[in-house]
Write a structure and sequence with these properties.
- The protein is an all-alpha fold.
- It folds into two domains: 119 residues, no CATH class; 54 residues, Orthogonal Bundle (Arc Repressor Mutant, subunit A), CATH 1.10.10.
- The protein is built from eight helices and no strands.
- The protein starts with a helix and ends in a 5-residue tail after the last helix.
């Protein structure tokens, strides 16, 4: 193990030793569940491991950083739960009891929907609205322009931007 890796390990160990219990307690109060809090603590420290040694050593207030990571994880979890609930409701409405979904298929659908929701949420508001109205509501560019109060040309630009954004996200390119 190199000296740099050892120093990184020591920095994480120091933060873990001094803040693990505090973070677990904080999350338990927020979530109301000890097991879920423990899972979130683990996920938080896994995210912390992705930092470089310099970034770890530069942390002035580790608890603030840990709280930020944990809060983002809670938001992601909440968003995922909403997507899963919407999927289950649609499944129930379409009389899906005739079609058995395996746990693996269920997980794959939820992960895909979560990815799509993340892509859509990362778009600017107007291009997202235009894209969704076009793709989900099958509205014409003229109808979208009237709804958004912009020209048809601007709707075309919004949809083009949205499609380029999706392409960049899907293919791992910088946006």
């Amino acid at each position: 193990m190199s000296a740099n890796e050892l120093a990184l390990q020591q920095a994480v160990k120091h933060i873990y030793t001094h803040h693990h219990q505090w973070l677990r307690h904080w999350l338990r109060r927020k979530l109301g569940c000890g097991e879920l809090a423990s899972d979130m603590v683990q996920d938080t420290f896994c995210r912390l491991l992705s930092l470089s040694r310099a970034e770890l050593e530069a942390l002035q207030i580790p608890r603030a950083y840990l709280t930020t990571i944990a809060t983002r994880l809670m938001i992601d979890r909440s968003r995922r739960q909403k997507i899963e609930q919407a999927y289950l409701e649609i499944l129930a409405l379409t009389h899906a009891d005739n079609y058995a979904v395996s746990p693996e298929q269920h997980l794959e659908v939820i992960e895909t929907l979560t990815l799509i929701a993340g892509i859509l949420e990362s778009m600017p508001e107007k291009p997202r609205q235009a894209f969704m109205l076009s793709r989900l509501e099958n509205l014409t560019y003229l109808e979208i322009s009237q709804m958004l109060g912009v020209s048809v040309s601007m709707v075309k630009q919004y949809i083009a931007r949205a499609m380029v954004h999706c392409h960049h996200i899907i293919h791992g390119e910088n946006v």
